[in-house]
Specification:
- This protein is α+β, with helices and mostly antiparallel strands.
- It folds into two domains: 10-166, Beta-Lactamase, CATH 3.30.450.40; 181-225, no CATH class.
- Helices cover 39% and strands 18% of the residues.
- The chain contains seven helices and eight strands; from the N terminus they run ααβββαβαββαββαα.
- The strands form two sheets. A six-stranded antiparallel β-sheet has the order 3-2-1-6-5-4. Strands 7-8 form a two-stranded antiparallel sheet.
- A hairpin with a 5-residue loop joins strand 5 (112-119) and strand 6 (125-133).
- The chain is elongated, with a radius of gyration of 28 Å.
- The N and C termini lie far apart (97 Å).
Length: 230
């Protein structure tokens, strides 16, 4: 069995994958629908959205497979994600890279595999969208083209998840500022986002539009100016 090589940008790739905060999340209907479409297009019993983590491949969506993850060392998807085109294995039992792979000689007894790499906008490879059969087969060019286009839709769904997560964080920061405003105990400047400190007058004006006039309260007058002759 040939183990999949580790990409040269592995650290950056893993950071990109984890930035989506999708690993070990619950099934989502949009991902499920794309996986079901792949199974219908290829007529295969198994289809997966597979994300390749440091030591495992984890399935965000799956058709025809009970397992939620497998070891990365035996993952067809860890090979498939390395290229730009769809990775095709017509008959794994006759392929020296996979003939003795546990996923071939044992359940689910993979024979045919086609996987389109999931490549994010920065060029990081996250995993694959794949079709799997227990019988050898040769896919058509049309099927491979559809698989690659659907892989692009998986990336778009992941991007939407990341944008939604960042928006939720921004809203939470805004709520925190509304509940608790950090203010310097000495100069009374207010800390805004990104650790930028501003005068309390400027902060309140930016938040509410209110303007200020300045005077001296009686207590401060007595403390600072009470010694002066009238």
């Amino acid at each position: 069995m040939q183990k999949p090589p580790i990409p040269l940008d592995e650290a950056e790739r893993l950071a990109a994958l984890r930035s989506y905060r999708v690993l070990d999340t619950q099934p989502e209907s949009d991902f499920d629908a794309l996986t079901e479409t792949v199974a219908m297009v290829f007529g295969t019993p198994i289809a997966l959205v597979s994300l390749v983590d440091a030591d495992r491949q984890w399935f965000k969506a799956r058709v025809g497979l009970e397992a939620r993850e497998t070891s990365r060392d035996i993952a067809f998807c860890a090979h498939a994600m390395l290229g730009n085109e769809v990775f095709v294995v017509p008959n794994a039992f006759e392929d020296p890279r996979f003939a003795d792979n546990p996923l071939v000689v044992q359940a689910p007894q993979i024979r045919f595999y086609a996987g389109a790499p999931l490549i994010d906008p920065e060029g990081r490879r996250l995993g694959t969208l794949c079709a799997i059969d227990r019988e050898p087969r040769q896919p058509t060019e049309q099927q491979l083209g559809i698989l690659q286009r659907l892989a692009g839709q998986v990336i778009k769904l992941l991007e939407l998840r990341r944008v939604a997560a960042r928006l939720a964080e921004s809203l939470e920061r805004a709520r925190t500022l509304q509940r608790l405003i950090p203010i310097c105990a000495h100069c009374k400047k207010v800390r805004e986002d990104q650790d930028f400190w501003t005068r309390v007058e400027d902060y309140i004006h930016a938040q509410t539009g209110a303007d200020f006039t300045h005077g001296i309260c009686p207590q401060c007058f007595d403390e600072h100016y009470g010694h002066l002759p009238e």
